[in-house]
Design goal:
Helix content is 38%, strand content 13%. By secondary structure, the protein is α+β, with helices and mostly antiparallel strands.
Length: 127
Amino acid sequence: MSEHDEQAALIRFCRLIEPRVPDLAWLLHVPNGDLRDARVARRLKDAGVRAGVWDLFLPARRNDQAGIWIEMKTPAGRLSAEQRAFAAHLAQQHCYTLRVCRSWPEAARAILDYLGERAEDYGVPGQ
């Protein structure tokens, strides 16, 4: 599956279990990586879209962390220089959990683990 397909599957899964894990209602996608025509790209850049910002954010405080950022990648995908810089900045803040995930089950496990939930209790496929 493509990165988009994996991410869409993750969102569908999270919406399905959201009644049992209410924090998932706030899982959001940052649309920074899509291809656009020059006019739309310029408008979005003017509005604050920034290259390198990771794909998903869940603003839910757990312990000393303010949320979890997820970057979805294909199995062979690599972080861009901008994505590495964004991760370095977030790491310096010492208040976010960061995960690069290569499948929707991996991302679901990362999110549920962050929230203190057991992925097995929600039927997430094995590792």
